[in-house]
Amino acid sequence: MVGKPIPSDSGVVVKVSPRGASRLKDGHVWVYRSDLVSADGATPGSLVAVTDHRGQFLGSALYSSSSQIAIRLISHDPVADLPMLLRQRVADAISYRDAIVHDTNAYRVIFSEADFLPGLIVDRYNDVLSMQILTQAMDTDIVRDTLIAELTERLHPVAIVERVDPRVRQLEELPPRSSGLLQGDKTSTVFSMNTVHFKFEALAGQKTGAFLDQRENYAAAAQYAHGEALDVFCYQGGFALHLAPCCSHVSGVDSSRPALEIAEQNAELNPALLKDKGKEIEWIEANAFDLLKDYSSSGQRYDTIVLDPPAFAKSKRDLDAALRGYKELNLRALKMLRPGGVIVTCSCSYHVSPPEFIAMLADAARDARRTLRLVEVRGQAKDHPILLNIPETAYLKCIIASVT
Ligand code: SAH
């Protein structure tokens, strides 16, 4: 099956409005349904040719019959053989990682639009690949077979696991499907980043595995961390474990017990960082907002505080509330830092722009009556590429600052 063109896909043309066309000409790859002029004959998940309203060819795209994002451009050229193009894209994504990823056997191999493979995410956790399919086009048998064949040939994973987001399948009007193995039979492994080891349970109830996008920020934070450290929203201990070797004491806070249980197991996996040095990380199950309020009013002090909350702004509408949430957390954290202390503060909300996030932090510093010195303005790890003409590919902000 792999390697053959999709005959039924040839010849279908989707016409887009001038607004849709200018979006594509500006370098974006999405056209919204409201910007389609006609899509006659386009079947769910098919490869289509895209033209402007006058019939001028703009590129080849993958069509969704249900998503608000009706087409996602996959090439500026005509595509006769989609599987061949997909294989090339997978190969390119892998060689890009070979060039830019170091000190880890866990990284994002394919980041959807940012790797010109819209609707596909593949993460590598040592010998296990975890794949997520987000669109109708990526869900067809021929596309799945092609992707699996190419990933296997290039990366030789022991297993490939698919993680299904039921909500995404519903939105794409795809039949329900459960998470599970696509190949091999290994679902748990140990991976390492920056010499720190972590457990990966591909099919555990809760999503597990690291937030791979923070990998370079863990290493950066460790450069400045010192003294007593508090990792707020610690999940499975990504920052906490990286901070432990350079701090006298580390506490990790999260509201999720299962996440903290894995964090504790991760700590066990790293005796060289901890036990051999007589250190132990304290894991605290708590609501971060309540805990920061209690700790700051009771006079607790730290030298290093990490704030890495979940996305507060899921849409533009949430922006004001999100900024208020970030400010509350940052204000309390800043009040608790000793002079010379370091804050590592993150936001993974795409809708909060870097300038808005920095302005929020400046506000919090003013209200906390602390002077903040910006040490580093950081984003997502390089294996989560940012395409300058697709702003949605840039979402993570990580500011490191020191208080005087
Ligand atoms: N810093 C982590 C990732 C954090 S993800 C890492 O690098 O791996 C966000 C985390 O916030 C999740 O683990 C979630 O359980 C936790 N969380 C969400 N709301 C919370 C709250 N109100 N209080 C404490 N933790 C919360």
Q: Roughly how many Å apart are the termini? A: 64 Å
Report the mean per-residue pLDDT as an integer: 95
The description of the largest β-sheet is: 7 strands, mixed
H/E element order: EHEEEEEHEEEHEHEEEHEHEHEHEHEHEE
Structural class: alpha/beta
How many strands appear in the DSSP assignment?
Answer: 20
Chain-wise SSE layout:
Layout: E1 13-16, H1 18-25, E2 30-32, E3 36-38, E4 47-51, E5 57-63, E6 69-75, H2 82-100, E7 106-111, E8 120-125, E9 128-133, H3 141-155, E10 159-162, H4 166-171, E11 180-183, E12 188-193, E13 196-201, H5 215-224, E14 228-232, H6 238-243, E15 249-254, H7 257-268, E16 281-285, H8 288-297, E17 302-307, H9 319-336, E18 337-347, H10 354-368, E19 372-378, E20 397-403
Parallel strand pairs: 1-4, 9-10, 14-15, 14-17, 15-16, 17-18
Antiparallel strand pairs: 1-3, 2-6, 4-5, 5-6, 7-8, 8-9, 10-11, 12-13, 18-20, 19-20
The structure holds S-adenosyl-L-homocysteine.
S-adenosyl-L-homocysteine binds next to helix 6 and helix 8.
